[in-house]
Structures are given as C-alpha cells and as structure tokens.
Write a structure and sequence with these properties.
Layout (H helix, E strand, L loop, with lengths): L1 H8 L6 H12 L4 H8 L3 H14 L15 H8 L3 H7 L6 H12 L2 H10 L5 H15 L26 H22 L10 H15 L2
Helix pairs in contact: 1-5, 2-4, 3-4, 5-7, 7-8, 7-9, 8-9, 10-11
Length: 214
Amino acid sequence: MILEKLRACWAFSPTVDRNVALVEGFLKGKSFADLAQEHSPSKLRVRQIIEKADRLVGGGILTKAEPSKASPRSDFMVDYPYVWNLAEMHRLGSVTPHHFFAELERAGSLERLVDKMKRLPWRAPTTRELARLVWLRGRGESPWPAMKRSSVAIVEPSCPVDHPDRGLQCQLALEPAFQQLAERAAESGWTEKRDSLRAPRTRRRAPQEQLRQL
C-alpha cells in the first residue's frame, strides 16, 4: 500500500520509478549507501527522497506510522490512479489533477464533489470535466444531464424579400428560437451568471447583421 500511494503521489515525476525503487529497497533493509551505489544518486539525495516519501504517506518508512494522520488526499490518489492519464488523454493540463484531488479531499467523496459541482456548475470547468470523466469511467454514465435534442420551430417572415422591414421580421422570427436555446442550455447546467449564456447571444449578432443586408 505504501508503494502504491507513493506512485500515485509522484505520478507526474519523471523519476517516479527510481524513487519508488529506492523506498522499496530501503523497506527491504538496504542502507542509504547501498541504494546510492545501486541507483546512482548521492547518499544525501537518497535520504532526502526517502524522508519525503515518509512524509507523503504519513509515516511507516523512517518514522512510526500514524494512519489516522495520513493525508486523505493520498488515499484518494490510490483510489483513482487513472486520473492523471485521463487528464493527459483529454488535454486538461497537468495541474488539473491536483485541483481535482484537492476538491475531492474537501468534499470527502466523489459523490459529494459531483453534487457540489451540480449546484455550482460555473466553477472550475476543467476540474468539473475531469470529475465527469472519473465518474463516467467508474459508473458508465455522465453525472451531468445531456443536452436535450429539440426541433425548434422558426416562423416564416411575413414580409417579401424586397420589403424594407424584411430584416426586422427575420430577427423577430429568430428570437423565440434563441430563447428556447437559452432555456435548453439552462436546463443542462448553464447559467446567465459567469458569462455562460452569453455565447448564444453573441452568436445571434452574426445572423442579425446578415439579415439586415437582405
């Protein structure tokens, strides 16, 4: 269990295999000098790595183990070792897993974290996406409601093409469709706060400008 925790904590370190091997060798009774000779780093560096490993797992390597004082963050890293690969695969950045585990530690469980993000959908979009991927991998379905497909009816403008009010009539015909789109977005977790629903309104300007030229 100690080695698994360390591998999860050092997941993005290029020397993770060597560091884990050093700790494993030390647990088997090898001295700092023997490990330095076997793995190339200096004797001082070996001691530093093993001391850091001991702090990460809450004791049990150099000092007496205190399971009750061990960081729950390390336990979560062991429970979800694939988080790092998911973040890398979906290009969410190398910092996102650390934010995810920090939020997970505060929440106490993945279920509580997802519930919190459902209530606050605008917070930490990359962390939210990583939580969705972790949940999806464990349960086979996304925790967020999918966007509903709908056929939006657009009324035909009442003016002929060459009428001077044609552009205005086209805008009025499109307005209910954009309203329905905003309502669908809100049902799927978007919010007018934090700029979420500004995207449809921004895109609305382009067709309106084109319609004015008709």
